[in-house]
Each structure stands twice: as structure tokens, then as C-alpha cells.
């Protein structure tokens, strides 16, 4: 996969090094001569150019890129790079760094952004994730498709503990994508049983976050988990989530 990164500062170089380690082809673009430090990431291609200029992006052959990452420290630059990458070069995936949380509302599909990564928001979410059990934590917003990556650690008293994944009727527009259990990362199957302490990662529409949190936070003493089926495979009377 070919990836172009606008911004060769500490963030851009770190991303480049990680991608190169995973076998991808990386081009770093920066207009500041001082940022061109080939010796720091020697396996990458380097281009001294202004990523907001069409001529520079032509030189970078952006049309050959599968992903563009706008990782500069200037939100205006990141928005312009994202828009040009998507509209002028048809790059399939555009990821943009948000430096100022007040600007986060701009980083949408309208500006060509598929995934917006706000460092302050992400750090806040990771702190919440580390100390929160039973509360839904939003980790990342995906502009394309209007969805969020959310996480919840299943508390011991949750009604879903001991329930098969396939026996739960999750809210519409919600997908359980990963279960982190201790040091293991599990791809959940229908026969996998949810355990206390499981970190559940979902991709969910924003409007489904509240019913998802209600489903996951239901306690055993409150009754059967919505959507959970009994031993005969039947749902208890009067339960079920919106479909």
C-alpha cells in the first residue's frame, strides 16, 4: 500500500516508521527544509514541497496513493490537503490530524476527511477507557459513514456476562468488531461467550450509542439482557432492541 504523509514532524515521522515496519510504501512531504530529515526515516521517500499546492501533489503522484495522511500541526493545512487529495486525486482513504478540538466539526466528508484523529480527544478517551468500567467511551469518529469507534469494559454484574455473542440482538447500525480479553484480541464469533472484564469495541452510528450503552449496562438483577435468548433459543417476553 502506498501512503503519502503531509507533515514530516515528529507525528508524521512516527506514523511513517510504523507503516514502513508493516511493509508499506511511504512518502513524506513537507515544505520546511528543516523538517527534511532523511536519516531519521531512511526507508521513506521524501519530498520538499508545499502539500497545499497542486503542482507539489502532482510531483508526489498522489493519484497512486491508497491513503493520504494530513499530519501537519496546522488544521487549515490539513483540511486543504484532505480536500485536494479526495476531490482532485480520488484518494480512497484520507486521514486527518485535528490539532485544535474546536476545529473538529470541520473535519468531515465535506472536506474530504474519512477519519479525523483529534489527539487531545483521543488522549482523553484513552484515559476514560483506562479507568471506566461499564461506561461507553468514544475512541474515534469516522466521517465517512457517520460512525464512531466506541468501547465498553463489561462489568461483572452485567446481564450479558455469560451470554453467547450470537444470542444478543445488538441495536441496528451497530457491529461488535473486537473483544479484548486480557492480552488476547478476539474476533467475536456467534459461539463466543462474553466474560466479565471483556473490552468490547464496536463501530456504531452515533444515534445508536445510547441504546447500546443501555443494553451493555443492564444488570442481572434488572432482568434478562435485551435480545438474549433462553436455553430453548427463544427470547424472553417483552424484551428486544430496536431493529
TrEMBL record:
Keywords: Ion transport, Transport. Residues 137-218 form the RCK C-terminal domain. The keyword Lipid metabolism does not apply. Residues 217-243 are annotated as: Disordered. Pfam families: TrkA_C, TrkA_N. Residues 1-117 form the RCK N-terminal domain. PANTHER family: POTASSIUM CHANNEL PROTEIN 2-RELATED-RELATED (PTHR43833), TRK SYSTEM POTASSIUM UPTAKE PROTEIN TRKA (PTHR43833:SF5). This is TrkA family potassium uptake protein. It comes from Streptomyces thermolineatus.
